[in-house]
Write a structure and sequence with these properties.
The protein is about 20% helix and about 35% strand. It has about 70 residues and is an alpha+beta fold. The strands form two sheets. It has a two-stranded antiparallel sheet with strand order 1-2. A two-stranded antiparallel sheet has the order 3-4.
């Protein structure tokens, strides 16, 4: 895997979801407010410097939430 080892090893998945909130629909259409896109770990690796990393869970179940750093916009 080369330079992707820190992103994909042990994850048990090969794709990730990129979740996005559309403020236009906030408060009146939850199904339209939250949108997601499936992305590949290589895509995540290319924008890693623009993201804050928030681990969650424990050794049995968990993962990482990545959020855009302050100053970056979608």
């Amino acid at each position: 895997m080369g330079d992707l080892t820190d992103v994909a090893s042990g994850s048990g998945i090969y794709e990730m979801s990129l979740n996005e909130i559309d403020p236009y629909y906030a408060g009146w259409s939850t199904l339209m407010e939250y949108q997601y896109h499936i992305i590949h770990p290589v895509t995540l690796k290319t924008i890693m410097d623009q993201l804050d990393k928030e681990p969650w869970g424990n050794k049995a179940l968990g993962g990482v939430v990545y959020r855009l750093k302050e100053g970056y916009s979608s």
